[in-house]
Amino acid sequence: MAVAATFFDGETAHDRPVTVERISNELQFSGENTPLTRWSIAGLHPIDPPSPGQPFRLTHDSQKGSRLILRDDAFINDLIASNRALRGGYSFRHLGQVLGWTVGGLAVAVALGWFAMSFLPQQLAHLLPDSWRNRVGEQVISSLVEKARKCETSAATGAWSAMIAKLAEGNSSLPPISVSVYDVPIMNAFAAPGGRIVFTKELLRQAETPDEVVGVLAHEIGHVAHLHPEAQMVRLAGLQILISAISNGGSGEWAGNIAALAAIFRYSRDAEREADEYARSTMAAASIDPMGLKHFFEKVLKLEKGKPDSTQTPSATKPTALEKIGDVFSTHPGTEQRIKDIQPLPTDHVPAKVLSEEQWKALKAVCG
Length: 368
Ligand SMILES: [Zn+2]
Hints:
The protein is of the alpha+beta class. It has 14 helices and 11 strands. 48% of the residues lie in helices and 16% in strands.
């Protein structure tokens, strides 16, 4: 069966009427200005998927850029029946190309995402306005301490001020901070955006000396100075945007999800090392005995080892937001190393007295 068709050779713009015939595994065509051409059926490629009643445009491996346009439906159907690749859409080769692009695109997206998550948040954190830092800091605290009571007495406030003043003797550029205590039965402390540092009642109950508390305080101020909480929020917001994009919607209620996301995104070991380093140098310069912090970490380590799983305590069936966020509990892995890194004050330093007996008592009693 010979049918009329149109041929473009891909080199000149002229369309040439040709007659096409199928002879065993080949299409053969020729016309007034077209010498006899033989295209193997195996080498044919559809330019568009075939569509009934529409011209079917083909090209061939041997003549890139050329086009053969068929219009005879019976001829087209017969041809398609003998070469699956002509059914259009996706031959395995095309599928391979598409997959290649998709996988390549994903790899690029993952690499960009990793870069964005690793470096950008810390840079962006420096650009955030104080109003944002303060507002988000308040949100973070209220979602983490839930309905716990805030403990406040003027004597305890005086004790915190005394500790901050003592640390400032070792570091004249302490960032502005505020410290609050919440009546939470879980031993923890954390820094929220805007220089807000939170201690739990349980941490103060377990602390045996003012040096332990001031050590934890110095560590949290280290997080504030490096804007780690802000960077973490930028990371979480970015993650939330990503999740919304992937799940195609979701109304950006990310502040409410902070606690859940924080469980995934604890501070990195680098961030913890930076905060430790800040605490060590500030305390050494202020002649505060770092053995308090060391003792505190040893206590944390003992608690960690006693726990079947870091996100669960034997007493609670469901871990609370504050247990999940970590910080003083996000010390593992590496608590042993952090303990080793804390060196005693040089022997010629007289350890400073951080709090008076009355101030210490006031601090321990702040939650009643
Ligand atoms: Zn920390």
